[in-house]
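Dear colleagues,

For the upcoming journal club I promised to circulate an example of a predicted protein-ligand complex. I picked one with iron/sulfur cluster because it came up in last month's discussion. The inputs are reproduced below in full, followed by the predicted structure.
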Amino acid sequence: MALLEVENLTTTFRIGVGRVQAVRGISFHVDEGEFLGIVGESGSGKSVTMLSVMNLLPDYATIKADAIRFNGVEMTKLRGKELRAMHGKEISMIFQDPMTSLNPLFTVEQQLIEPLKIHLGMKKAEARAKALELLRQVEIPAPEERLKQYPHELSGGMRQRVMIAMAVACNPKMIIADEPTTALDVTIQAQILELLEGLKRNSGASVVMITHDLGVIASMCSRIIVMYGGTICEEGSARDIFYAPRHPYTWGLLNSVPKISTGEHKKLVPIPGTPPDMLKPPAGCPFAPRCRYCMRVCTTVAPPLLQCGEGHRAACHLMHPNAPKIQREDA
Ligand code: SF4
């Protein structure tokens, strides 16, 4: 059953030289208890999509949607107090760089007990005990001492664990993790991903993992949405995306991920070119300037998302019955 339903979401940013069309009319859903991955390069619109859902964008952003329904509640109608009540309690977010998300002026304890007091109405002693329990849950060593520390006194991995503890503090129904491991060492990345997976399993919450790295989510996500140029170019189960991808951009992403488990020594193939200028996105397929299979129609007509299997959709003119039959190269 869908926990979050987003219909026709468009987000633009007004800047000095025009309007950045960051998200362009996308629709998707997040099911209860699922682990969804949103993948794409920087500037593809993946983070802006979820920040739009949370209504956490600055004033110069304009968010339009036919519907953003969370657990049956229309989020676009929520303002001020109602929206704040939703944040942290129902939906929480883990950001890429905990150093800029944690408040440097407050101790870990102060930052952890705040949402517990506000959202769950706990008294200070009860909130402190819960904060301690949360630090143990995210496997922080010597939690009593950590409570008294400030963010700058913790390592990067530990700060991210504190962020995760804050995110799960009020048992939210959905956790959005925005590149939670990008700023961390590889060994710590693996620990944080394992921790997130464990917390999801135990709490039953839905997790939306935003990442530019398909490799990071390979073993974790049940479903994946691939974004490019502010649009969804492919979505499907992890099996569809990894074993039967239909969009040339997804092929490119997969070809740029090392395949260690197969024992093959294949050269990584980067995707040529750069992402589109979202001030003036291409008229047709946003991937056309970088696509080796680009046809004339691709430069003028935006391909719709077409069904290519149960729950598997891709937006590419190659899926038209009359299009040339292309075999994925480098597979
Ligand atoms: Fe390439 Fe055309 Fe498909 Fe876009 S629609 S991905 S340009 S083949």
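Two points we might discuss: The mean pLDDT is 90. The pocket of iron/sulfur cluster is lined by residues 247-248, 285, 287-288, 291, 293-295, 298, 303, 316-318 (CB under 6 Å).

See you all on Thursday,
B. R.
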